[in-house]
Prior knowledge:
The protein is of the alpha+beta class.
Amino acid sequence: MIKITVFQSAIALAISASLLAGCGEGEVAKADIEQQAMKQLSASVGKESPPITCPGGLKAKVGTKLVCSMPIDGKQYDVTVTVNEVDGTNVKYGVEVADKPRG
């Protein structure tokens, strides 16, 4: 239970990433989201984050959400990534770890 509480304290994380070049709306690559979210969670709690797995990239549109997952104590927890700001090719997003494991 301590691990869960520690990672839940990272709810207010703000992360910045660059957009992938492409047509129309930009997107932050799946690997970039996973790596940056793990890095920020690790820095926030002072220990290595479990691996975060996302189903795909994150569209660069304010309010867009992507639900990823992270194992804690043998159970999967949702990690919701939400776009807070888009400024040119810079995307800022928040990361929130669910209170309870997936049903």
